[in-house]
Design brief:
single chain, mainly alpha, 2 domains, 6 helices
Amino acid sequence: MSELRDRAVEKLEKELGSISDKMKKQFAEPCIEYLKKRCDEEDSICEDILQEHKTWEKCYKYVCDQAAKALNRTNGPVWHETVFEWVEDYFHLDDKALEEKRAKEDAERKKRQAAAVQKAKEKKETKKRNGSAGGAKAGSADQPKEKPVPKEKPEPKKKSNEVEGQMDLFSLL
């Protein structure tokens, strides 16, 4: 056995051991066994597995996405051979640039969210200061407008010829 194969198998077993969800683990076990067999046959799959950004969790998501596409977003069976092909495809997929792009986008999104939270805090503090310094001006943009109270509808007046409790058949039409 080669050192490359041993490291790849070790990584796969470590990731299998870290899966806490029982259903995911039952799905992962045959897939990882398949990958181990492929490691015995081919060194290139070992190199692909050992890439730092490749994880079982991402592989699982990739397989689920492929199944959803294949089944047109409906439920149904998928042959295990097809699933094994998707598992191997994920590890062969050259997605390092895509992973770096996603990481960069995530970092930018978090930065924008933090800035938005900070801006909201500052706005709240400004509102508080304005409110405690003698009250804000009436009609200012920071103050919420009061909703008008809806008027109650007056009850319809009784006609003089109506008797209470009787219905007029023609008024129903």
